[in-house]
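#data-curation
PF: Archiving a pair of folding outputs for the training set. Convention for this channel: one message per protein, sequence first, structure tokens after, nothing in between. First:
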Amino acid sequence: MPEKREQLAVAGFVVLCALPFLGKAFHLDEVEFLLVARQILKDPWHPLSFTLSWYLCPKPASSAFIHSTLVPYILAAAERLTGGSEITMRLACLPFDIVAALALHRLARRFLDKPLWPVLVILACPGWLLCVSPLMAEKWTMALSLSALCLVAERRIGLGAVLLGLAVIAKHTAAVFLAPAAALLYLNGVKPRRMALWLAAALAPALIDALLLEPGRLAAVAAVDLPLRMAEAGGVHRLRSLLAFTGGCGAATLLWPCARAGAPRRRHLLTLAGAAWVSCLLFSSLLDPAGASIRPVDRLTGALMAFACLSAFARLCEPEARGQRGDLVWSAWALAAAAAAWLNWAVSARSVLPLLPPLALAGAARLEKAWKAAERERFYMASLAACFALSLCLGWIDFSFAEASRAAGSSTAAIQLEPGRKLWYTGHWGLQNYMPQEAFFIDPCAGGWDAVGQGDTVLIPTVNAGLPLPPMRAPSLDWTIKSALPLRLMSFEGANQAGFFSNSWGFLPYALSRAPLERFTLISWRKTPPPTPRPGRR
């Protein structure tokens, strides 16, 4: 198929994947970026001069918002042009999804003879579909970084340095793309000194942005104590999460190494057996923390996902992979992305997103060398169907979860409060965006539940971050949001299963479960008077 027709197919597939979810409520960290964008609309020169309630206690945005303001400025422009509704904002930012997909296809075309099907499968994976489409930094880092790699591969290294520098400004973890960029420079014959200058030029904008423009944000990032975070997460839990998230978010693409392609049969079987043994050991009860209760189905799911990830990495190390087109690029890219995901404060689908393309494209390169075109096409079509079906189901779960917060916020706006009574809420994310303006956030650093008055109404979500729980029982009304699809992205009430957006909720990116998506509790606060002291005995 000619290149232009392939590009049209890629762009059309991106639009097809996005259409069902254009009206999704603003969700999770999208709200954090939108809050800064709305401040920019009020005062463009002081984007962080407001109080941001995001990490349990409200703080100055200059210390609470640990990202660059590049993405909020883009969102502010989009909101000014579109009015800020969900569907118009997502439509306005959809071109960046298309740019990222086209750049991935263009890069893959340099190393694969038939890149269309592998690229479509990558785009259909849960990790890509659910992480690139939201209005968060990943959309712009993938578009800018992949475009930069394409330019470097085409020897347009000056413009490539500019785009990669912007990507690192958008999100500092985009620095992992320096590794494949260096590999491409090496393949193009760039000398070490010039390569070092290029890498310094690509990093310079991010350093200037951090050191000169927003030193408060740099201090906030430094305040996130990495060793403490890793100690809290636990080494086994982090390793389980990294392997399971990578395998689960890549879905069918990371199972491609199971297909024999070039390696001797005996060594291929030994490699798969070794990956299976390590996966089963890692998810066995022998390595569980004390008091952990893990369902057998979650162990099996985690072991299968880890097996896929380990098999993909083993494919990179096989002798047959050496000397192939793109091998150096895929290896450098995958190792840098894996290190960044491990060092991130939490493992999530977003943190392993940069890992998915190199592992999948490396597997596609091996299949292209060993299989006939007709065999590969049938194999890729089956992979695409499986990935797309899984991603649509998970996308619907994510859509329903986001919609639950919007519905809860709209419902509280209709509550008729008695004169002098207030409406309070706990939690962040999408709920914070849809609560009425007159509602108050329960601030644990400013009195917490003591600030809630007698007879006030409080809305409490269950699956949310930063939840100061009530110290006593009160008359309440509960309503639960369920879904017939037996898949969950976030664990319900500490089940330690799925944590697509953070492994703080579980070591799996998604889990088989029929637990509720969310439960909201509406309470009418009644303060219990202190007990009357009894008179002492004489």
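PF: Second:
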Amino acid sequence: MLQIKNYSEKPYNMQKRFLCIWFRHLTTDWLSIRKPELKGMPYVFAVPVHGRMMIVAASAAAELQGATSGMAVADAKALIPSLQVFDDKPTRPNKLLKGLGEYCIRYTPIVAIDNQDGLILDISGCSHLWGAEEAYLKEIVSRLQSKGYDVRAAIADTIGAAWGISRFGKDKPVVEAGRHTEALMPLPAAALRLDPLVLQRLNKLGLYQISSFIRMPKSNLRRRFGEELLLRIRQATGQEEEPIKPIVLQAAYQERLPCMEPIRTANAIGIAIQRLLGALCKRLQTEGMGIRTATLLAYRIDGKIEQVTIGTNRATFNTSHLLKLFELKIAQIRPGLGIELFILEAAKIEEVDPVQEKLWAAKPAMEDTAVAELLDRLEGKVGSGTIHRYLPEEHYWPERSIKVASSIAEITNLAWPTDRPRPTKLLSFPEPIQVTAPIPDYPPMLFRYKGKVHPIKKADGPERIEREWWMDAGEHRDYYTVEDEAGQRYWLFRSGHYTEDHAHQWFIHGFFA
């Protein structure tokens, strides 16, 4: 005779509540957000498996027409001729879930990634801030849906129950406290997150619903289906705690300094900045990091916020140097009736390149920290973004042959070309000029630029530079280096071939020192 064992609902912690979110089409939703023209279209992500392209994710429209995960792309295209196929990246789901999990931390501090298509939120003690769990759940789901994701979610006492109901539940998504086992009973066995082989055995025996086997003796279940089934039952019913690994946000590099009395003088503001920098730079130094951009927020007692920002060309935790940069900005801070709170935040940090400064060891200009500090001070006076360093780019087309370096420490394997003369100042866009020149390939005799005529004394050229046809279309250029009677040198070019029936156009593109 079959012995029936009653599982008592005694959760390991009655105050625990969990929310599970299921992203039904995570990666395909992400793609349609980036490419709105795909919305409502059948498309899939696929990877090569033993020489065949296999589907790993299908859009909602593709699923409705018969394309599913695990199907060969060739079979899916036979069903859906208009099916679009994109290459999948194995790391994409985890990266997307991490970003979505960090977004959900605003609702609870404990958020974990659930395999490749879900999130687990420990919402114990959080939902009352939204009035009730129903409103809390609706807020999260509607926010995610507004971003373009198709989601289902459920709340229960255990992770296992919330997971199963979010994917297979048909009734209310919020399970009352203590009713999670009852809510699990009508769900299919797959709601327990079982191995496919275990599911196959259960289905073979006709045990399709959880209610059909959950109360069987543990010894019978263990012998036929293994320990995993019992573990999942204990976790879903609350007999055993299920550990999760929460997402940990990178700690903000921020320091706060509340003031006992409102601060109004520049000297006091400077002292506050010095204390904040001392604490922040000490922390950065221990981690081998340095400041590239830092912002000071000064909260006035009248509710207004004063803000100043500094930037550096090289990552640094040199307190005295950073203080000098902020001192240039103190005059911009209007304390009003007084400042009651200072917050210093390093918005951009980078690893510090350990430069050993020796008294008698000279450094090349770009490696000398004094040069970087001088540039920082100059930018503090003349304005951010006014001083640039340029590096060569691997392009023939002049406008693309240089790039702005991201920092003073950036290096490149390319060398500046020296075989052909290039102007010291290159115009962002060539400017049209009027030229008198023999034809077809002779240099110009004179040109008019901004109303002034420049008779040409010397000229060298032409140097033909073809368009990079794989990037854009257009005519080639024939460049000439010319010198006028005043000794000034210019870089001019004629666009395209000269023909009698076509008015050729000349341009000025740069100036030589």
